[in-house]
Amino acid sequence: MNRLPAPCLCLVTDRRQLAxxxxxxxxxxxxxxxxxxxxxxxxxxxxxIRERDLEARGLCALVRRLVARRGGRAVRIxxxxxxxxxxxxxxxxxxxxxxxxxxxxxxxxxxASWLVGRSVHTIDEVREHAxxxxxxxxxxxxxxxxxxxxxxxGLDALAGVVAASRTPVIAIGGMTPxxxxxxxxxxxxxxxxxGAFLAPGGPGRVAAEFMGAMRKARS
Length: 219
Prior knowledge:
By secondary structure, the chain is an alpha/beta fold. Helix content is 41%, strand content 16%.
């Protein structure tokens, strides 16, 4: 029940990248919600709300509104780090950082249907967190949201992690449609991206290109 489809496409939010000229947090959130309305109808399987600096009440209200607007669509919505907010907002689960709390402890506070994902960076972390429903691995390619100087893992490291994992591995970092195709060809169950979804044309166009590229790699 918790498994995500393959190939899986995940959108990770960053309202400040989306609306760099916004004057207030309220303006940023308004822009984010307007943008996510399109994303909800796109071929996206998972939306991770990654707005770490929002206080709990505002974050919970944002996620609750998004869940309500999602309606019967298949896209799943998870909250970065804040299991308490995910529970209060009726989200589909939580995404944990590599140094976050134990997966078992997080599962204990949520419903049986919850998705619990985790970011990992090494094979040891992959093995340690095998109880997750999915794992984010990166940064795979240069040029992602962490900046041009951020260290990258590369495709060979991705393939090694996939081989060591019993859990679906989602590649993140510097993604383009061509790189998504490569990641899936190297064994990734899908890809996640932040900045790539901000390209002209909106998240719907970007999602269609990513999904097309990943499906070609699996055909």
